[in-house]
Each structure stands twice: as structure tokens, then as C-alpha cells.
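Thread: quick sanity check before group meeting

JM: Hey all, I'm pulling together slides for Thursday and realized we never actually wrote out the predicted structure for the chain we discussed last week. Dropping the sequence here so it's in one place. If anyone has concerns about the input, flag it before I start.
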Amino acid sequence: MQWTLVIPLKPLARAKSRLSDTAHDGVRPGLVLAFALDTVAAALACPGVRDVAVVTDDVLAGRELAALGARIVPDEPHGGLNAALAHGTAVVRASRPQSPVAALNADLPALRPTELARVLTAAAEFPRAFLSDAAGVGTTLLAVAPDRELLPAFGVDSRSRHRASGAVELPLEAVDSVRQDVDTGEDLRAALALGVGPRTAAAAARLLIPGQ
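JM (edit): ok, ran it. Output follows.
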């Protein structure tokens, strides 16, 4: 099964405010872009991924991600994360209605194609399934079969909300790179310990993170 991934990305200047203790305003947008570039590059290298659509209005991010091979979908709803995901899914399905779709976070800089492939293979067994994040309260991936609606419920306590909506939680082990999203300096250190992509590694090296 070949998946289309839909990845939402805020304008870089407004993204990841919780990283302000680790990366100040002057460098944080570049770090966020590095996360997204490494995430998309790893996703495109996954054998189970047919293509990647990034929902964003950020001009720089759109240009850089398109150069990697991602399709850029303008965030026309401007209604936040879940609205962007629903819109991106609708755009994808307008041209490819029979494609299974998975929403994936843009902040997975340690993402490994082989681990993503394991998650997508497991998700293919269910009409709608999700993977919780490393903290056990959020969600990093939500996958649906071609005949199902995505119904994204990302945000605070999304693990519980996706469960309540009927999505099956995938009880997978050894897929840490797909779970480790980055919202805080502590998250970034955890991702660095797993081994991040080259763009994040270069950006993080300039931060002089303690314990790196």
C-alpha cells in the first residue's frame, strides 16, 4: 500500500514558541524549517510513501520543501492545525480519491524511513489508526483508509481525543523516531539523542545545547 502523507506547517515566524528557552526568535524559524525539511526528506525516502503534501503559507518553507519533492498546498482555511489537515486531505483526494492518507507532524527531525514504514504497515490493518507521541499525551500520526474521513483532533490531549473518536491506537515498539516530536528544549535533546537529520543537526549545533 502506498500512502499520501499530509503535513501541516505554520508560518515559521509563529511556530514553536515553546522552544524560546532554547532557541531565540532570531534562530527559531530556521530551526523549525530544519525540522520540517528533515521530516519530509525521511518521509519521501520511506518505501510505503507515494507522495507528501505540505499545507503551509510560508513562502520560504514552501520553496525549500518543494525542492525536496513535496507538493505544497496553500493553507486556505487559516483555521489552525486540524482545519489545515482536513483541507490538505480534501485537496489530495480530489485528484486521488482511492489513496490512503496519513497526517504526520512536521516536527519529527529524527524520523527514520524504516520506522515510518512499520507504522504505516500497521495502520493499513485498520480503517483509522493513530500513533501517540513520546510523551504519551499527543499524536504524531493519524492514518485513514481511502473510504474514511481523517477527522483530525490534534492539539492538547489528542491521544485521548483520537481514541474517543474511534481511531485505533497502534501499540508499536521500536518506532521512537516516529513518536519524538519537538515542542521544547527537552524534546529537542531527546531527538538529538536518537539521531536527527543533517539540517537539524547543523541548526542545533549552533545553539550550543547543554548536554548535547
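AS: nice. Residues 61 and 110 are 19 Å apart (CA to CA). The longest helix spans residues 28-44.
JM: adding both to the slides.
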